[in-house]
Design goal:
It is built from three helices and 13 strands. The chain is mainly β. It has two domains: about 80 residues, Beta Barrel (Elongation Factor Tu (Ef-tu), domain 3); about 90 residues, Elongation Factor Tu (Ef-tu), domain 3. The two termini are about 30 Å apart.
């Protein structure tokens, strides 16, 4: 379980294709602290540390992960948001994030508001019932608040600190982002759908 509060960013150093899998060596300030078998969020995707080599660590994405996330776009030089899991007794500064990305969205617009930056994100309509006005959304692993929520789009406003300390500073119209919708909404939606059967 994660919170969507990014601790640091890493840089993809190498991409290795092995069948339908892709392995990534990522260099980050936290990499030397990681241990094999540890679960770490990378752009909102929970991945297992397979190897630690000095300032870098290795993770592997299987076909299912590559199809539902933007990891297939990663190349050497890609900046990745990184968060360690929530410790028992730790503060929940963002919201409950599983690290199980539901799908990708696309940045439709970026606007500088002279103090914050707004991003309009478009997503598949089948997720419309999982997001609400002023509800939580996880975007590339970042816990944010959605507003101007429509059938297939929402807006988020990002403060300068988050722009500076995450990879959202590089997000431009047309770019793909990982989206994880609020788990509470998923359970409520499931309950309602089963009640109607």
């Amino acid at each position: 379980m994660f919170t969507g509060i990014i601790e640091t960013t890493g840089t993809v150093q190498e991409v290795i294709v092995n069948g339908t899998n892709r392995s990534f060596y990522i260099k980050s300030p936290l990499s030397p602290e990681f241990r094999v078998d540890q679960s770490i969020s990378h752009n909102g995707v929970c991945m297992t540390i397979e190897e630690v080599q000095g300032p870098a660590h290795k993770v592997t994405a299987i076909s299912e992960t590559l199809q539902k996330t933007n990891l297939s776009d990663w190349t050497p030089g890609t900046i990745v948001n990184i968060e360690r899991c929530l410790p028992i007794g730790g503060r929940l500064d963002g919201h409950f994030v599983q690290g199980h990305v539901d799908g990708t969205g696309v940045c439709a617009n970026r606007t500088d508001r002279n103090g914050s930056t707004e991003f309009v994100i478009e997503f598949a309509k089948n997720f419309a019932e999982l997001i609400i006005e002023k509800g939580s959304i996880c975007l590339n692993g970042i816990s944010l608040t959605a507003f101007n929520v429509g059938i297939n789009r929402f807006t988020v406003a990002v403060i300068p600190y988050t722009i500076e300390h995450t990879n959202i500073k590089n997000l431009q119209p047309g770019d793909s982002v990982n989206l994880e919708f609020d788990i509470l909404g998923k359970y409520i939606n499931r309950k309602i759908s089963l009640s109607a059967v």
